[in-house]
Amino acid sequence: MRFTAALIKLIRLPNLFFIALTQLLFYYAVVVPVLKQVGHTPELNEIHLYLLVAASVLIAAAGYIINDYFDINIDEVNKPRRNVVDQVISRRWAMLLHFIFSGIGLLISLYLSWKTSHWYIVITNFLCIGLLFGYSLALKRKLLSGNILISLLTAWVVLIITSSEAFYLYNTAADSLVLEAHRKIIRIGNLYAGFAFISSLIREAIKDMEDMDGDAKYGCRTMPIVWGVNTSKVYVAVWLVVLIAILVIVQFYVLQFRWWMPVTYSFVLIIAPMFYIFYKLFPASRPADFHHLSGWIKTVMLTGILSMIFFYFFL
To answer: pLDDT digits over 171-195, tens only?
Structure first.
């Protein structure tokens, strides 16, 4: 029982649920309704979708495991009560679990690519495994590179499904209505991927400030260590302003369709909390303060993804 609880903590089960929810929501709330309007079906059928979600979750879980494997010493400083590797799960077991999860995720991806002829699935998922390993081994300790990589992989959670519709778009001579439906899916997918990318950049920078003590002790070159905390706060503030501005512009665009409920939701549950994060950012000084802000931006990411539900009813 103790091993099971430790494994759940190690693979970040709530984060895996978030990944699965993002892909399922995008498929059922955006892809299916848009294509249904033109009498078309998604490139990925439901069985292929579930396999893709399973592969994404397994690869992400493997990434979390290998991250904790290489971060044992740092986590003893930053998160002494949350570290399970070498306390409950041995390093050998952690590495074995990483290869098992990665291997199953890759095999599922290979099967999917074979069944759908979308070979980008196995290629990109193989790259994701390698990049997550490289991130845990070295990139996360370097200035910006680790943050950008994680943000790109976060955006890819949406884009991997969007890519199927793009594949159809550029390899089919369908009628204009069907092609426009696929273009609409790609535009919405890019919007959510952009949101995921920027919000992840913000959260990764805040986490770097939270974990600065342990990172500095073991020679990491993260943003607050190299640039200082105040400059890092300015960096986060700039991205917050950019994201808020984009979201406000999108809401004014949506208002022309009289989508009052989605606009109200966005202002109350996405934009307003981001103003709160901005307000609390500069007074923050302790790891607990940054942990609080990290939790808030994670909540904003969740409410942002949940906004996909409105497309099901309003498209």
So the answer is: 665 678 888 888 899 999 999 999 9
**Distance (Å, rounded) from C-alpha 271 to C-alpha 287?**
24
Q: Which residues of the chain carry a pLDDT beneath 50? A: none
Tens of pLDDT, residues 129-174: 999 999 998 888 888 999 999 999 999 999 999 988 877 666 665 6
Angle between helices 287-306 and 13-25 (to 10 degrees): 30
Q: How many C-beta atoms lie closer than 10 Å to residue 257's C-beta?
A: 11
Strand partners for 85: 89
**Do residues 305 and 23 make contact, with C-beta atoms less than 8 angstroms apart?**
no
pTM assigned to the model: 0.94
Handedness of CA 229, 234, 239, 243 (dihedral sign): positive
User: How many angstroms separate the CA atoms of 137 and 95, rounded?
Assistant: 13
Question: Could you tell me if 194 and 243 are in contact, meaning their C-beta atoms sit under 8 angstroms apart?
Answer: no
